[in-house]
Design brief:
The chain is mainly alpha-helical. It is built from 13 helices and six strands. The protein has helices at 3-9, 20-42, 64-68, 70-85, 90-118, 148-172, 181-186, 196-215, 227-236, 244-247, 253-275, 301-327, 331-336; strands spanning 119-120, 131-136, 140-147, 282-283, 292-293, 299-300. The strands form three sheets. Strands 1-4 form a two-stranded antiparallel ribbon. It has a two-stranded antiparallel ribbon with strand order 2-3. The chain has a two-stranded antiparallel ribbon with strand order 5-6.
């Protein structure tokens, strides 16, 4: 009698067979099913919602930005407690912390070197008032320009993405995880393997953003360069062109979709309903490509795309780091296949 037959006799469901290709396609099909009707609905909007923050109303949300970080801090603390205390997840903890160690400087670097170019922070009463220096091209370092809350957001945001994925992968969608991760990781010939279609997609996205901004964007967005979108693609998509082939079979795409849709919900609630309308932060039109969500106070599309690219890169990097830990071969051999 087979294992499946024994389980059926005992009333236990056999573990479903996992197909990375089918799951990967299903995730993007789900996105399309949601995005297409959303776009159709948004095209019916002719006037954007009005921001609440203004010069005449300087304090509509006292410490609003500071308190809003609870959206990330509370899930992070809860899932960290579950993750650290769990007796069975020892091999996942090292890859998790290594991934956070790699990605956190990227978020900090965005604010330090590009924060003043991409964003504005007009409502000072919404923060603690502690501001760090930020670099401005053509001027150099500008003191007291980036709120401390921005750095807390990037750190806790990365933690939340990874912890939600790990929780979904190990518990909520555990049946769709790789059956024998260590065995499959040891079979990986090399991790760095260039994926041309993904590279072509990255270049095409940047070119499309430039053309849209120049010829199709509203007049207030025509000047400048889509720097924020270009930065996100270069940082979030380009590095994965050499990781995607290896990481794809190891990613639990059901857990990936759960993490992404949860973070997208938090983003639209946090940015579209509070952050931008109340002036906690804003986006410089000359650095945006010009696609906006009008019902959410003209929230740039880049704000939503950030969460997809952050989820994409964070989870892919986490799985690659986990392969390195499980593979237990010299780093050079694991990365390049060289013995």
């Amino acid at each position: 009698m087979t294992t499946e037959e024994i389980k059926q006799e005992r009333g236990q469901a056999a573990k479903p067979r996992r197909s990375a290709d089918a799951d990967f396609k299903a995730v993007f099909a789900m996105m399309a099913v949601l995005v297409i009707p959303a776009v159709i609905t948004l095209l019916a909007i002719r006037q954007s919602s009005q921001p609440v923050f203004s010069v005449q109303n300087l304090n509509p949300s006292p410490l609003g930005y500071t308190w809003s970080l609870a959206l990330f801090i509370i899930p992070t603390l809860t899932l960290t407690w579950w993750f650290v205390k769990h007796p069975h997840y020892h091999l996942e903890k090292k890859p998790y912390w290594l991934t956070v160690l790699i990605l956190t400087p990227v978020g900090f670097g965005l604010d330090l070197f590009f924060g003043n170019s991409f964003f504005t922070f007009e409502n000072t009463a919404a923060t603690l008032g502690i501001r760090l220096p930020g670099y401005t091209f053509g001027q150099g370092w500008v003191a007291d320009s980036i709120p401390l809350e921005e750095f807390c957001f990037y750190f806790t945001g990365f933690l939340t993405i990874l912890l939600v994925y790990i929780w979904g992968n190990m518990y909520w969608f555990g049946n769709y995880d790789v059956e024998d991760y260590r065995k499959d990781a040891e079979k990986v010939d090399r991790i760095l393997d260039f994926h041309p279609p993904l590279a072509v997609a990255a270049v095409a996205l940047i070119v499309a953003a430039i053309l849209f901004k120049k010829f199709a964007a509203p007049p207030e967005f025509r000047d400048g360069f889509p720097g924020y979108f270009t930065f996100m693609v270069v940082i979030g998509l380009v590095p994965t062109t050499v990781l995607f082939k290896t990481a794809k079979p190891f990613i639990n795409w059901r857990a990936f979709s759960f993490s992404f849709f949860l973070m997208l919900f938090l983003s639209l609630l946090w940015e579209g309903a509070m952050g931008v309308p109340y002036g906690w932060w804003g986006y410089r039109p000359e650095q945006m490509m010009g696609l906006v969500v009008e019902p959410l106070a003209n929230l740039p599309l880049e704000a939503a795309l950030l969460w997809f690219l952050a989820t994409w890169e964070n989870i892919m990097l986490y799985e690659v780091v986990k392969i390195l830990v499980h593979g237990k071969r010299p780093l050079r051999e694991m990365l390049f296949g060289l013995k």
